[in-house]
Design a protein that fits this description.
With about 300 residues, the chain is of the alpha/beta class. About 40% of the residues lie in helices and about 15% in strands. The chain is built from twelve helices and eight strands. It has an eight-stranded mixed β-sheet. Helix 1 links the parallel strand 1 and strand 2. The chain is globular, with a radius of gyration of 20 Å.
Amino acid sequence: MDKISIVMATYNGGRFLKEQLNSLCKQTRIPDEVIVVDDGSTDNTLAILEEFSKVLNLSIHINTNHLGVNGNFEKGLNLCSGDYIMFCDQDDYWLPNKIELMYKKMLEIEDKKTPCIVSSRDTYADINLKESPQLNPYPSYIFYPKNNCDYRETVIKHLSQGCAMMLNRKCLEYILPIPNNEVCYDYYIGFIVAMIGKKYDMKESLMLYRVHGNNVTASINNNYTQIPKRRHRNPGVVPQHFIDTYNIAISQKQNYFIKERYNYVKRIISLANNNNSIWRHITILFSTPNIPIKLKYTSLKNKLLNFIFKV
């Protein structure tokens, strides 16, 4: 029988940790192991973990040096033994069928020779886990692929949250080592697998993503379509963290990328080059498929404003 591992990173998470661990205990498909990497908690996190180690196959690994989010999850990946791996934050709540449904979908789409990711959706919730979709900063037209069979959709819309992913073990051959906090681990993993393997976005929301002001991933650049307050405006169609992830991934993994996908992403990235002439910008913008119309409009508007104000 296939083994499913959960990798959890903790740091002073005692306030919400019990609810998250309780949600793992209530899964219709219980994980085979839970690998917890703690980054030096000084609250009651470790006591809670010890309590749940009696009901889950949970092991605790305490860092002697602070590793940060990326380092914690990388360490957890190296420690886990599962055929399939899921990331777990310390402050969310998984719906009871999350593991079961994602595992079934993985078996449907997986090719054992290919790195594969299945991503579920989530529902944003307030500090008390009351559903609050208005807290979600990401527009659905940029975040979710419409066609999971089209690499151009899964590449440009690769931004699955780590806590919503299931990976097959083949992924580990390509995603490790994870850059040390230069970009967020889940953006990096999603991009790498979208460039070389299969990535499937489920339509079901399978967890409550709690927003409480101290989230790590929720605070990362959510400025997809707003015009920056500074005078220069981004004429590209992807945010800066996409470009940062691309540049780091290219430096480390380019040899693995499927050429057709690599060339497509290069075109997308080139739109952020403010040195392009307006004509070249328009040509690339409207000849490149799968760019949402709203992003095309914003990109063209920003390019024209930069030209008018000569920035």
